[in-house]
Amino acid sequence: MVSSLLPSGAPRLGLGLAALGRPGYINLGHGQDLGAAKDQTALEVRTAEVLDAAWSAGLRYFDAARSYGLAEVFLGRWLQARGHQAVVGSKWGYTYVADWQPDAPVHEIKDHRLSTLERQWPETLSALGRQPDVYLIHSATVETGVLDDPAVLGRLAGLAARGVRVGLSTSGPGQAATLRRALAARVDGVQPFSAVQATWNVLEPSAAPALADAHAAGWTVVVKEAVANGRLTARGLTGQGDVPGPLQRMAAEHGVTPDALALSAALAQPWADVVLSGASTTNQLRSNLRALSLPVSHDALQDLAQPAGRYWAERAALSWT
């Protein structure tokens, strides 16, 4: 489990760099967060500031991907400059193609062929300046066939033999089916995977049973998008879709913002090893950190779950800013 990789006493909250490594992302208000300073230098400075705040708060798990712009480069430079030893996760399978334009018509292209893996693995090593601890197929699905590709599985099994915890990230209404296919994968009778990063939040909890099975099998389970790309934050009140009433009321009762309550609901899942903050400002991170000291019952939030198809359709409609 990730808990065995993290230093003793480290919180189960990690930091994902999807909103920090590139000038455009789908989080509500992302463009407002970054302001006018969206060049590479400005974003590297911002990323270092948020990473410093995360490190000071005890966070030790940091997540990037080849498609997150320069996230791997920013993280690698920061680790080297600070001399920190952290648990690092990254992903392959998407290529960033937006050319640093927030309004680009296409931001990333998915390709799960072996040739992409062979190209992106050395790119990740170069950018990070080290081997990632966790290395995932980015948004694997049953439809791409990557989980049935013997060449890809064999290459990943080779990385696992070198001490990398390989696995997959999941997205879309078929997360559970994809994960169950991965749980059944074998290379010469051996399971190559031992990690999954999946979307789970109070609006989209459908993958929970499969994630519990992965956890029971000894896999590292990392939760992403626990605040639903900003829909479960105070910004959701003025963005696309209102924050659900029960979440607002409970947050007010406990004197926290909705994002902290949403993250605490993810942290309360017994199968979740790490829950990622997707903060793009230090203020957002500080708000997210309140989740770590929020021992409340989340029973009142269980009725907020949406049909998975509806949730992912609404997510797909979010604008890149």
Give a brief rundown of this model.
36% of the residues lie in helices and 13% in strands. It has eleven helices and ten strands.
In DSSP terms (H or I, runs of 4 or more residues), the helix count works out at 11
Give the low-confidence spans.
Answer: none
Query: What is the spatial order of strands in the main beta sheet?
Result: 1-2-3-6-7-8-9-10
Beta fraction: 5-15%
Number of strands: 10
CATH architecture: Alpha-Beta Barrel
Query: In terms of structural class, how would the helical and strand content be classed?
Result: alpha/beta
Give a quick account of the main beta sheet: strands, pairing sense, barrel closure.
Answer: 8 strands, parallel, barrel
Distance between the termini: 35 Å
CATH topology (level 3) name: TIM Barrel
CATH class: Alpha Beta
What distinguishing features does this structure have?
single chain; 321 residues; alpha/beta; TIM Barrel; 8-stranded parallel beta barrel; 11 helices
Protein topology:
Elements: E1 13-16, H1 30-34, H2 40-56, E2 61-63, H3 71-82, E3 87-92, E4 94-96, E5 108-110, H4 114-128, E6 134-137, H5 150-161, E7 165-170, H6 175-183, E8 195-199, H7 208-216, E9 220-224, H8 245-253, H9 258-267, E10 274-277, H10 282-289, H11 308-316
Parallel strand pairs: 1-2, 1-10, 2-3, 3-6, 6-7, 7-8, 8-9, 9-10
Antiparallel strand pairs: 4-5
Pfam family, one: Aldo_ket_red
Protein name: Aldo/keto reductase
Domain NADP-dependent oxidoreductase: 24-304
